[in-house]
Amino acid sequence: LYKKTIEPVMNDLRRNTTREGWRKWVERWSKFSMETFLLDKKELNEDGLRPWPEDAIQAYKVTAYSPLINRSLVEILREDIGKWWSDTLWTPNAGMQSFAESFTKHSMGWNKDIF
Q1: 82's torsion region: left (phi>0), alpha (psi -120 to 50) or beta?
Q2: Contacts of 52 (CB under 8 A, 6+ apart)
Q3: pLDDT at 115
Q4: Measured between alpha carbons, how far is 110 from 106 in angstroms, rounded to an integer?
Q5: Which Gene3D superfamilies does this chain map to (predicted)?
Q6: Quick one: what percent of the chain has pLDDT higher than 70?
Q7: What pLDDT, in 10s, does the model give residues 9-58?
Q8: Whole-angstrom Cα distance, residue 45 to residue 4?
Q9: Which of 33, 68, 83, 85 is the most buried (most CB within 10 A)?
Q10: 7-11: long-range contacts (C-beta < 8 A, 24 or more apart)?
């Protein structure tokens, strides 16, 4: 039910792939908290999946471990959109120490080209 409910919001973003489109999407949807969105009847509700009953919202809070449902809808969806929770972990091929070494010279001084 949750995925079906937020699908119109996600599709709205997919139609707006430019920087300006992203800005408009954020402007449009940031006026909602997740809870006010789930209770809203009007904004992109063609499928009639909203408003959610209070019991359904309470169940979502418990099962999604999301007591902060009053956070911005955009803030919550940003994690789903960006997949920041993904299991994929990227590290430099030469190891993490190569990251710091890329900012210094072999003589252990700071790389003046960086500044």
Answers
A1: alpha
A2: 5, 38, 39, 60
A3: 43
A4: 9
A5: Guanine Nucleotide Dissociation Inhibitor, domain 1
A6: 77
A7: 999 888 888 889 889 999 999 999 999 999 998 887 878 889 999 999 99
A8: 11
A9: 33
A10: 8/44, 8/45, 8/46, 8/47, 9/37, 9/44, 9/73, 9/77, 10/77, 10/80, 10/81
pTM of the model: 0.65
CA distance 4 to 43: 14
- Lookup result for tokens 């079906």: 4
Quote the CA–CA distance of 103 and 10 in Å, as a whole number.
39
Q: Among the residues of 40-111, which ranges form H helices?
A: 54-63, 73-82, 97-101
The span from the CA of 28 to the CA of 22, in Å, is: 10
Which residues form the domain of 45?
A: 2-82
Measured between alpha carbons, how far is 48 from 1 in angstroms, rounded to an integer?
11
Determine, yes or no, domain membership for 94.
no
Contact 4, 49 (CB under 8 A): yes
Tokens of 52: 């959610």
What does the alpha-carbon distance between residue 3 and residue 21 come to, in Å, rounded to a whole number?
22
